[in-house]
């Protein structure tokens, strides 16, 4: 050991108690911090080296516990928890707020014409496809054919959903039209996420014991993980896509916005961003990142294998993805 920092700090787990909502919220406020998007490759690499060396028992001289945890959260924000590979910049959870506030703000601003609905739903679902792929659970590779088929299916479904909902609101009050983007996004999440993670549903995701020892792959765990992610994603969209339309509907009746209509989009984007800063980490925290399920809920053949090799295990754990 080449430093004074003890080696018994468990940086494999989050710093805060993940058994409580507040602990998970503190964790995800760090993981989704938009400032992490601005970090250079050198800073990310230094964090990776610091974390991996610490796990091997090598401590940088002068390293403090706070610096170690900071490095751990920088590492977690940029590197996949299962594969260890550096994630695509716009697919990282730290990019959720700046990317989503721009896309969602434009979706809410330009919702009146069919071309605008199609374009912004396509942009949004393309972005979601990147996020879903980047934050997938498990370490099994996905082929370009599988990825392409999933993307086309998910994006087509999202655009069709948006156009169908738009046509239904033609004869309803104008305020109802403003909620079409939210309804489309909620429905599209139910399509996009399972499609982009269909390989997990077919082949399963890794399940482990409490110490992280791999026990096998489970499709049942994948189903639970994807349901939790869908619920969290829809929850993230609620404040950002439900609150600004009400505010903007009132503001557009005021003289100021009628005089300066060019401010419509910037104000809307700003309101969405304000909502997402809080909604993103709080909705990620609805379920533990390291999710769990009873052995009895797994596939019969995996249950049998676990009971034969590890009869004392009653609960398995898995990364649900984000």
UniProtKB/TrEMBL annotation:
It comes from the Eukaryota. The chain crosses the membrane at residues 175-195, 225-247, 267-287. GO terms for molecular function: monoatomic ion transmembrane transporter activity. InterPro entries: Mtc. The keyword Membrane applies. One of its GO terms (cellular component) is mitochondrial inner membrane. It is found in: Mitochondrion membrane. The keyword GTP-binding does not apply. Pfam families: SFXNs. Keywords: Amino-acid transport, Membrane, Mitochondrion, Transmembrane, Transmembrane helix, Transport. One of its GO terms (biological process) is serine import into mitochondrion. It catalyses: L-serine(in) = L-serine(out). It is a multi-pass membrane protein. Belongs to the sideroflexin family. Mitochondrial serine transporter that mediates transport of serine into mitochondria, an important step of the one-carbon metabolism pathway. Mitochondrial serine is converted to glycine and formate, which then exits to the cytosol where it is used to generate the charged folates that serve as one-carbon donors. This is Sidoreflexin.
């Amino acid at each position: 050991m080449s430093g004074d920092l003890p080696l018994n700090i468990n940086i494999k787990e989050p710093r805060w108690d993940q058994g409580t909502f507040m602990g998970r919220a503190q964790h995800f406020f760090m993981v989704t911090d938009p400032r992490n998007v601005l970090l250079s490759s050198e800073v990310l690499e230094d964090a990776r080296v610091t974390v991996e060396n610490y796990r091997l028992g090598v401590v940088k001289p002068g390293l403090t516990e706070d610096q170690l945890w900071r490095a751990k959260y920088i590492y977690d924000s940029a590197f996949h928890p299962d594969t260890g590979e550096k994630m695509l910049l716009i697919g990282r959870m730290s990019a959720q707020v700046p990317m989503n506030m721009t896309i969602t703000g434009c979706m809410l601003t330009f919702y009146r014409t069919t071309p605008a609905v199609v374009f912004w739903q396509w942009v949004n679902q393309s972005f979601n496809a990147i996020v879903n792929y980047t934050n997938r659970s498990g370490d099994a590779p996905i082929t370009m054919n599988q990825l392409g088929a999933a993307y086309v299916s998910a994006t087509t479904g999202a655009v069709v959903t948006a156009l169908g909902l738009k046509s239904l609101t033609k004869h309803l009050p104008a305020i109802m039209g403003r909620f079409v983007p939210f309804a489309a996004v909620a429905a599209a999440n139910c399509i996009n996420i399972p499609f982009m993670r269909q390989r997990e549903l077919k082949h399963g995701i890794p399940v482990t014991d409490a110490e992280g020892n791999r026990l096998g792959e489970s499709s049942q765990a994948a189903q639970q993980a994807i349901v939790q992610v869908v619920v969290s994603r829809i929850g993230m969209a609620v404040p950002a896509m439900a609150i600004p339309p009400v505010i903007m509907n009132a503001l557009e009746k005021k003289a100021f916005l009628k005089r300066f209509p060019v401010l419509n989009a910037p104000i809307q984007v700003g309101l969405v961003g304000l909502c997402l800063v809080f909604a993103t980490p709080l909705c990620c925290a609805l379920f533990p990142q390291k999710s769990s399920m009873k052995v009895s809920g797994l596939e019969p053949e995996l249950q049998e294998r676990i009971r034969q090799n590890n009869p004392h295990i009653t609960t398995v754990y898995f990364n649900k993805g984000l």
